[in-house]
Write a structure and sequence with these properties.
Elements (H helix, E strand, L loop, with lengths): L12 E6 L4 H12 L3 E8 L10 E5 L16 E4 L5 H4 L2 H21 L4 E5 L11 H14 L5 E6 L3 E2 L7 H13 L11 E2 H12 L5 E6 L5 H8 L2
Parallel strand pairs: 1-2, 1-4, 2-3, 4-5, 5-6, 6-9, 7-8
C-alpha cells in the first residue's frame, strides 16, 4: 500500500478506540478529541474512564459479550490499543482471550459495520511461527486482521514502550533504562524505545492521510518524524 502525500482530509469523522484506558490508548483518545479531523470519539473500555472533551463518549462493556454492543462499532476508523500482560491476565491462556479473542471479535464487528480503516498496535517481532508465546499470539492477530476485508489496515510495531502505566512492568522498566544507552551504538538506533504518546501521534497522523491496503510500520518507522518522512509530509 502507498500512503498518499496529499494534505490530510479535512472533513470530520468518527473514531472508535478499544484499549482506550491503556498507555497508548489514553493519549490517542486525547489527540483524537483535539483533532479537527474527528468530531466524535467512541472510547470502549472495561471500566469507566472520565474524559475532558465533549467529543468523547465512554462506553463500558463486557468484552465477553461484545456482540451485544455491535452498534458501537459504527464509524470511520477503529483504533485498537487493547492489550495486557501474562502477569495481569494470570496465564497465557487468559492473555490470549484479551490480546487475541477480544481483538478479533471487535474487528469482525467493525467489518460487519463496514468500517473502512483499522489501525492496530502490534509488537516488534510479532510472528505467528515464533517460539515466544507472546510474539506468536501477536503474529496470529496480525494475520487474522490482514485476512479481513477492511479497505485499509495500518499495523504499528513499536519496540519497548515508555510512559507511566497503572501497573508496574519490571521488564519494561529495566529496558527503558538500558535500551536508550545501548541503542546509541551503530546499527541499533532503530530499536530505540518509544513513548506511548509518540505511537498515538503516529496513529493519528496516518489516519488523517489517505491510503488503501495493508501497511506495517516497524520499529523506527513508528516514530512520528519517520511516519512523516514515509508519507512525504
Amino acid at each position: 500500500m502507498t500512503v498518499s502525500n496529499e494534505a490530510p482530509v479535512t472533513f470530520a469523522k468518527t473514531a472508535i478506540v478499544i484499549g482506550a484506558s491503556g498507555l497508548i490508548g489514553q493519549f490517542l483518545v486525547a489527540k483524537l478529541a483535539s483533532s479537527s479531523h474527528y468530531h466524535r470519539v467512541i472510547a470502549i473500555t472495561r471500566r469507566p474512564v472520565s474524559y475532558e472533551s465533549a467529543k468523547v463518549e465512554n462506553h463500558v462493556v463486557n468484552f465477553d459479550e461484545l456482540s451485544k454492543h455491535a452498534h458501537l462499532f459504527n464509524g470511520d476508523v477503529l483504533f485498537s490499543c487493547l492489550g495486557t500482560t501474562r502477569k495481569q491476565a494470570g496465564s497465557i491462556a487468559a492473555q490470549r482471550v484479551i490480546d487475541l479473542d477480544y481483538q478479533i471479535a471487535a474487528a469482525k464487528l467493525a467489518c460487519d459495520n463496514t468500517i473502512a480503516h483499522y489501525a492496530l498496535v502490534s509488537s516488534s517481532g510479532a510472528n505467528s511461527q515464533s517460539r515466544s508465546a507472546y510474539l506468536r499470539m501477536k503474529g496470529e492477530l496480525d494475520d487474522a486482521i490482514k485476512a479481513m476485508p477492511f479497505k485499509r489496515i495500518s499495523i504499528f510495531k513499536p519496540s519497548v514502550l515508555l510512559g507511566s502505566r497503572e501497573h508496574f512492568r519490571l521488564g519494561e522498566t529495566i529496558a527503558s533504562v538500558f535500551l536508550p544507552l545501548i541503542c546509541r551504538l551503530p546499527g541499533l538506533t532503530r530499536y530505540r524505545p518509544i513513548l506511548g504518546k509518540e505511537v498515538a501521534e503516529s496513529m493519528l497522523f496516518v489516519s488523517q492521510c489517505t491510503g488503501e491496503g495493508v501497511t506495517e510500520f516497524v520499529l523506527d518507522d513508528v516514530f512520528i518524524d519517520r511516519i512523516m518522512e514515509l508519507t512525504g509530509d
